[in-house]
Amino acid sequence: MAEASTISFFSTLLPRFQPHSQVSHRPLSLPRKPQVRCSVSAGSTPQNAVAWGCEIESLESASALQSWLSESGLPPQKMGIDRVEVGERGLVALKNIRKGEKLLFVPPSLVITPNSEWSRPETGEVLKRNSVPDWPLLATYLISEASLMESSRWSNYISALPRQPYSLLYWSQAELDRYLEASQIRERAIERINNVIGTYNDLRVRIFSKYPDLFPDEVFNMESFKWSFGILFSRLVRLPSMDGQVALVPWADMLNHSCEVETFLDYDKQSKGIVFTTDRPYQPGEQVFISYGKKSNGELLLSYGFVPKEGGNPSDSVELSLSLKKSDASYKEKLELLKKYGLSASQCFPIQITGWPLELMAYAYLAVSPSSMGENFEEMAAAASNNTISKKDLRYPEIEEQALQFILDSCEASISKYNNGSLDLDVTSPKQLNRRLFLKQLAVDLCNSERRILFRAQYILRRKLRDMRAEGLRENLVQTNPKGINMSIIYHFNRNGNRAIFKAIQND
């Protein structure tokens, strides 16, 4: 489904502009040879789609892109574009590829960076004079070049980009509320959508409205920015060997993601091109993969619009929300300490199928600790933020049971939010129906993967609590049995791990 090639990166879109960073190489002009066009007229453009690009599964436009890149300096490739099982279209091996072999070698002249030349230089100059940061700058650059069609040096690349990327930016509020009601990804998707809207509105007010000839509304509008940011979220990479320079790398962004692969794109100083090094061999006809980074299924859906098969992502996690209780006598003191270390009264922590981080346990300790442990509050808050020199596993045996029960309660509250019922929404056309079914399947896949992790955590927590309480009962029995009579403990625990029935029987 997704076609991006990116390593793990973090970026926050802010309506407030930050200083523009410089790149380490000069841009070069490219040939302007037009190829196959996939743009459509306004009358035939699908709703909420721009008037350029192609259908996401189009091989014709991708093949035309490869031909143009080859004519423009891309070396002969050991991979070719084809329709694939994972990702609609992707790169497959044309011949045997060895483990440890470097592939691609895309030259810097075929890479889009914040310092690339604009086909309309005056447009770029206005943005740079206003210190527009990299992300909004590149988003505007894509729209500007796309609107010029064959007049742009990047026309063949833009023709091969999906007209409507697989991105949560294209989900409506109703779809997010209905399909992702239980997932923390819903809040992140809404935040991302609002950031994109805020960034566009800031550009429109501060720049576009002052230069209407350079930034006409029919081109630079919310729909086109939704498209360009969707492209950036799914395709922009950071290149470690170029000081973290962000870039769009044509052809390389046809590579799909595999959770089993650990190789990623980077700049190779020796060959002076963008490459990746294979971590396994490939036979002719096999799809070649790279890693988009160690991301959860929710993060992959958020940026790339796909969810790996259940159990197939070792980096998968789900965010568990923990909150201080306002009824806590030490609430204000605890909250001040959390704020001191960059946390809040309600905090999310990632849990995986293999367990949860020490920070989550530290937060739970703080949440349940009585006022009498006030001298330990700061240590707990610091550990919850990972802002501590010591990496030791904090242990407070006197409140460990309460802390585990606190986490279990939060876990089961999260589980209860997942709805097993119908996710159907009203549709008005067969095409819309297909999209709804597709979104529903993505949501079901994500929710299944998140519930799987939560159920595993629930099982582990219940077992820990059961064992702790059983041991506590044994100790109490020994203390109340000074004669040393051999006793057997019969107990039963309810679904939360709490003791429900207990009695002791004297053995003959």
From TrEMBL:
SMART domains: SET. GO terms for cellular component: chloroplast. Keywords: Methyltransferase, S-adenosyl-L-methionine, Transferase. Substrate binds at residues 235, 253, 267, 292, 304. S-adenosyl-L-methionine binds at residues 235, 256-257. Pfam families: Rubis-subs-bind (PF09273), SET (PF00856). GO terms for molecular function: [ribulose-bisphosphate carboxylase]-lysine N-methyltransferase activity; protein-lysine N-methyltransferase activity. The lineage of its organism: Eukaryota, Viridiplantae, Streptophyta, Embryophyta, Tracheophyta. Residues 77-293 form the SET domain. This is Ribulose-1,5 bisphosphate carboxylase oxygenase. The keyword Membrane does not apply. The keyword Lipid biosynthesis does not apply. It comes from Vigna unguiculata. InterPro entries: Rubisco_LSMT_MeTrfase_plant, Rubisco_LSMT_subst-bd, Rubisco_LSMT_subst-bd_sf, SET_dom, SET_dom_sf, SET_RBCMT, SETD3_SETD6_MTase.
